[in-house]
Amino acid sequence: MQQETVAVEQGLLYERVAAHIEELIERGTLRPGDRIPSVRRLARQQSVSIATVLQAYLELENRGIIEARPQSGHYVRARRAPLPPEPRAARACTTTSRPSIESMVAKLYGAGRDPSIVPLGAGFLDPDLLPTERINRSASLIARSAGGAGVSYDLPPGLLALRRQIARRSIEWGCALSADDIVTTVGAAEALHLCLRAATRPGDTVAVESPAYYGLLRLLASLNMRVIEIPSHPRTGMDLAALAEAMGRHRIRAVMAIPNFNNPLGSLMPDEAKEELVEMLGRREIPLIEDDIYGDLHFGDERPRPAKAFDKRGLVMLCSSFSKTLAPGYRVGWAAPGIFREEVEQLKFAQSVATATLPQMAVADFLDNGGYDHHLRALRRKLAAQVERVSEAVAAYFPPGTRISRPAGGFLLWVELPPGTSAHLLFERALARGISIAPGPLFSAKQRFSGYIRLSCGHPWSELFDHAIRTLGKLCAECAG
Amino acid sequence: MQQETVAVEQGLLYERVAAHIEELIERGTLRPGDRIPSVRRLARQQSVSIATVLQAYLELENRGIIEARPQSGHYVRARRAPLPPEPRAARACTTTSRPSIESMVAKLYGAGRDPSIVPLGAGFLDPDLLPTERINRSASLIARSAGGAGVSYDLPPGLLALRRQIARRSIEWGCALSADDIVTTVGAAEALHLCLRAATRPGDTVAVESPAYYGLLRLLASLNMRVIEIPSHPRTGMDLAALAEAMGRHRIRAVMAIPNFNNPLGSLMPDEAKEELVEMLGRREIPLIEDDIYGDLHFGDERPRPAKAFDKRGLVMLCSSFSKTLAPGYRVGWAAPGIFREEVEQLKFAQSVATATLPQMAVADFLDNGGYDHHLRALRRKLAAQVERVSEAVAAYFPPGTRISRPAGGFLLWVELPPGTSAHLLFERALARGISIAPGPLFSAKQRFSGYIRLSCGHPWSELFDHAIRTLGKLCAECAG
Question: What is the CATH number of domain B102-128+374-478?
Answer without folding.
Answer: 3.90.1150.10
